[in-house]
Amino acid sequence: MRAWLLPLCLLWGVAAAQTLTRPPKLIRFVEAEAPAPGGATVVLQIDIAATGAVAAVEVLESGGAAFDAAAVDAAKRFEFAPAEIDGQPAPIRVQYRYTFTARIEAPPPPTPVTLRGQVVDPQGAPVAGAQVAIGPARRVAGLDGRFEVPDLAPGLYVVEISAPRRITARTTVDARQPGAVITLRPVLAKTPLDVDEELVIRAPRRIRAQTEVAIRADEARTVAGTQGDTLKVVQSLPGVARAAAGSAALVVWGAAPEDTRVLVDGVEIPALYHLGGVRSTINSALVESIELVPGAFGPAYGRGLGGLVKVQTRRLPEALTGYVAADLYDASAMLSAPLGASRRIAAAARVGYLDRVFAGVVEDPTVFPIPRYLDAQLRLEQDLRADEWIGLVALLSDDQLDRRVDRARDRQARRSATIYAPYRRILGDGASLAITPSVVAARRTLDARFGATPARQQVDSVRFGLRGDYRAALTDQLTLALGTDTVVEDAKVEQIGSLNRPPREGDVAVFGQPPGDDVAADALGVRVADVAIHGRVEWALGPVTLVPGLRADLFALSSDRLEPPIGEAPRLGSFRLEPALAPRVQARWRIVDGLTLHAATGRYHQPPPPEALSPVFGNARLGLSRATHGVAGVQWQPLEGLDVEVTGFVERFEALIARNTATTPPLGEALTQAGAGQSRGVQLLVRRSTGRLTGWLSYTLSRSTRTDAPDRPARPFDFDQTHVLSLVLGHRWERLTVSGRARYATGFPRTPVIGAVFDAQGDRFQPRFGAQNSVRIPAFAQLDLRAEYTRPLPIGVLTLSLDVLNATARENVEELAYTHDFSAERPVPGLPLLAILGARWDF
Amino acid sequence: MGLLKALKAAPWVLLIGCGIADGPSPALLAGPRIIAVQAEPAQAAPGDPVRLTAIVAGGILERLDWAWCTTPKPPTENNRVDPACLGDGVAPLGAAGLTIDATLPVDGCRLFGPESPGPGLRPRDPDVTGGYYQPVILRADAAIAVGLVRLRCNLSQAPLAIAQRFAAEYTPNQNPTLRLEQAPAGDAAGDTVRVEALTDPPERALRFDPAARALVEEEEALVVSWFVTGGALSAEQSRVEGGRAVVEWRAEGGPATLHAVVRDGRGGVAAQAIALSPP
How far is the C-alpha of A783 from the C-alpha of A803, rounded, in Å? Predict the structure, then answer.
């Protein structure tokens, strides 16, 4: 019961000559005990003394005897701040209406309902990490797919269960029986590849990029040749050239490795793989999925001319989980734990010991550049409200690669720390909001010495970023996506040595050839900023979906040195603004169920890397490189779980950074922007994603060329591979998973050596070259196998794995080398048959 | 042991870029070869006369054509000279012998040195010793060798005070000295012969450091390259320490001739030969 006190009016018995300067103010209200159910109103007259105390109370309008008595009793215990007349406290009389509202008996609290269950796939295997949304409550299924939502009020509920790359399941649950315990076993099937809409919980439909290939982390982990490293599966996806052994380069659709961006939760990281390419820099246990977009991606992303690799990290489970693993390469561990009901934390680390393994086997370990690496990750999650959370993620990576041959020494080191704070929210109207501030600190060092000639480059950079993405369905046919993408990078560059070190794409050199003996030096500060806004509309017109979009960038490029230091000329800096508009369009036509045509095109811009802005080694006046992508293809699903995609692509590159080939280049123009290129091809993907036998066949036929200057003929791109074929198959039994990967790839182009000249001062022969990139390394073919056996333990699961690389012991050629006088060619052999045992304990 | 073999072989995969493949030793002379080119004086200014000597080992070259390279190499060229200098981009010296007298081209410091080759154009970068060189091309039948003559140029890109001090204090480079001595038989293993190369102390010289933009004084590093007409050597190159470098020769047949070339890293060269017999 609740009583309301409503002042009606104030009557004060004061002489007309007197003035009320402050009315009384009720400072203590006493609630009356209602004598009976129902409502009543009592009007009271209250006399307030000069002290503020209640002097007398009378009933002016009765609400009934019992209510009158209760109201008078309560009013007598009121306290007031006294009224003031002519500025002095004075007694006063007021009227109050005391209203008793009708009493409503609250029903007894219902006995809560519990909803629990296990999310499984069509084969009955648990789906880990699925999102379960029940009214306002949300849960994340554990590694065994189980979830529980206690303390639900009885009622009817719509339950949504979703997981990345799976079709969201929805069901209505009758939970009106108080105290009921309801068990569900939702089945989540994988999203067929030709389904263009990916259902995100309560969020508008998202249109996939036309060329996107997504792999779930747990699927990727079992692929042969990856040694259980989820992210290494990217190397087997269509459109990706085979990287040379020992290389971490990602060559996508004929674009240079440095033109492809790697994004983790939307934040660009310095490298996907450790030096040497042995491992990825992010622990697989934290990865939810990997998406490769080789080209023609939407306006949300920029600053890259090539493709995108998007890594989505996993939401943390609400249970204590983790693993410990070790193999020939490294040891790693991860622990994830809840911190209360709404907070979770996970930490992971990996330490590579390949160098120490080989130190006991290889006679002279200083000769071999065996990579040393470690990485660590930390993730915190805090649920804020339903469909709203914030996180903090830290990714650390450290690499070192030493090589020493005769009088040459070559050391590479790379160290980076990436910290970002993802904020995600699904709004009540179904719109989604994602905000991700980030900071990336990195150091890259190349430190070599060829005889007495040094070659050192060090780049220290700090990059601040802020991404914001908002998506909302305007109508059933229209969805709007808007966003901002801002990056500010501050870099310090120090370099000494030959202009040709480090080597660039297009340099004519032979394997193992030292750079020139010329020595230059520079040290400068560089800042590159990009403020971008982007938007797109997803417009569904029956079977046709159009996605026009636009990205507008404003780049600011500045360096503190415009010209090389000459004499006593003062040091001048530079600052330039370069705007860039990038329209991008996607279209999709679902001809019939299971058959879809698609096409996309777009413009792309990329700023120069900091070291290229050196006026000594590069060119402080370099601006944006540009590219135009165009793709078209067909997606066909002839059978459930079987997808076929054929995609043709053309990419044109303009204003590429290239060496200045002039005999005497202008001052400060060691690099130019006169480079151009083109890449075209067609790729095929046949993929089976359901059942016990899964895998894919991918084939890419492509040709990528470059022109270093307008007066130069086009030449094959250094990483051009005409044919790249990958067949990946895996079969799962109860506890045993066996997979194989067969690869074939055309060899990289190389420039033939047609003779030699004796350098009488350097006491060495130097090669004479034929036409640039006119021969190729012999084709590569390799079969890798992997077997994985799992055994439940009293606590957790033990997994034993065996990877066999180059199972047929084929002698592949990784490079062409020459005798000291270049009179004979010698192949550099690739990987021998290599077996790698590993063990992993998950709990 | 299959796994062990695999482990031993696996590093190849990780070693891309590590070095040149095996082949016959560069120290073994299978025929006549130019092993060095000496200029006397070892450093000279454009327009100065120099005596050039091709040091040939392993036989006799019947004809040797000399030419000045006249085309500077692009900064992007890893080799010593522009490819044009292996073709028509040369100025023949009109002589055919192991030793010739020539005059350094007058535009050497502009084409190959620190002077700007034209308004707004980039001058050459020095080598690690601060040196600039006039290339000379030697042709003997199909074989081509490139020799370098260290130029004496002003530091036109350095601050004025530094350039003035350099011009006043710099001492032109001189060719090193070299003397070969066969060590007593007891100093080597039974089937080997030990040879010592003896040199005078290395010179000290000023150099303009492009990173610090200051003059630094450094001692040159002497390195001996070894060549032999037969047998095998314990090293192809040896650093001179304390005025001496040592190599051991193992006979694989009859007598042989050991050739040694000492280089000071600044264009200075000296050569000697010694006849060796199996112990």
Answer: 11
CB–CB contact A567 B157 (8 Å):
yes
Contact predicate A582/A554, CB 8 Å: no
Cα A33 from Cα A16, distance rounded (Å): 39
Q: Which two tokens stand for residue B64?
A: 């040797």
Chain B residues with beta carbon closer than 8 angstroms to that of A666: 120-122
Chain B residues with CB inside 8 Å of A370's CB?
A: 11, 14
Q: Is the ipTM of this complex over 0.85?
A: yes
Mean pLDDT of A1-14: 37
DSSP codes of every residue in A733-788 = -SSEEEEEEEEEEPPPEEPPEEEEEEETTTTEEEEEE-STT-EEPPPEEEEEEEEE
> Chain A contacts of B56, Cβ < 8 Å?
none
pLDDT tens digits, residue range A543-555? 999 999 999 999 9
The pLDDT, as a whole number, for residue B247 is 94
Distance CA A728, CA A215 (A): 13
* B53 at interface of A, judged by CB pairs closer than 8 A: no
Phi/psi for B187 (5° steps) reads -80, -5
Q: What are the percentages of helix, strand and coil residues in chain B, rounded to 5? A: 10, 40, 50
pTM (predicted TM-score): 0.78
Report the b/e string of A464-488 with b at 16+ CB within 10 A.
Answer: ebbbbbbbbbeeeeebbbbbebbbb
- The number of residues in chain B equals 279
Task: Output the pLDDT for position A195.
Answer: 29
CA gap A520, A454 in Å, rounded: 10
Residues A129 and A287: beta-carbon distance below 8 Å: no
Cβ A293 vs Cβ A308: under 8 Å: yes
- A28: phi then psi, degrees, rounded to nearest 5: -140, 115
How far is the alpha carbon of B43 from chain A, nearest alpha carbon, in Å? 14
Cα dihedral A269, A515, A813, A254, rounded to 10, equals 40
| Structure tokens given for A733 | 């039994």
Amino acid identity at A392: L
**C-alpha of B43 from chain center:** 14
Write out pLDDT tens, residues A352-389. Answer: 988 777 665 554 444 456 788 999 999 999 999 877 89
- In this complex, the residue of A512, A760, A823 whose CB is nearest that of residue B19 is A512
- Residue in the block written with tokens 């998406």: A291
Find the Cα–Cα–Cα–Cα dihedral A27, A29, A30, A34, rounded to 10°.
170
Instruction: Give ∠ CA A405-A407-A411 in degrees, rounded to 5.
Output: 60
Closest CA to A3 of A99, A104, A72: A99
Whole-angstrom Cα distance, residue A697 to residue A238?
8
CA A830 – CA A780 distance, rounded (Å): 9
Alpha carbons A166 and A192: distance in angstroms, whole number: 8
- Cα-based angle A193, A194, A195 (whole degrees, multiple of 5): 95
Q: d(Cα A672, Cα A662) in Å, to the nearest integer?
A: 10
**Structural contact between residues B37 and B139, judged by C-beta atoms closer than 8 angstroms:** no
Q: Mutating which of B5, B15, B28, B216 best tests the A interface, going by the most A Cβ atoms within 10 A?
A: B15
Tokens (6 digits) for A337: 């734990």
Supply the pLDDT for residue A832.
Answer: 85
Phi-psi region of A570 (alpha: psi -120 to 50; beta: other; left: phi over 0): beta
Chain A residues whose beta carbon lies within 8 Å of the beta carbon of residue B5: 832
Please give the sequence-ordered ranges of beta strands (E in DSSP) within chain B, or none if there are none. Answer: 33-40, 43-44, 49-57, 65-69, 90-92, 99-103, 132-140, 143-151, 179-182, 192-198, 204-209, 214-219, 223-228, 232-233, 237-239, 244-250, 256-263, 269-276
Query: Rounded to whole angstroms, how far apart are CA atoms B31 and A584?
Result: 66
A516 touches A509 (CB < 8 A): no
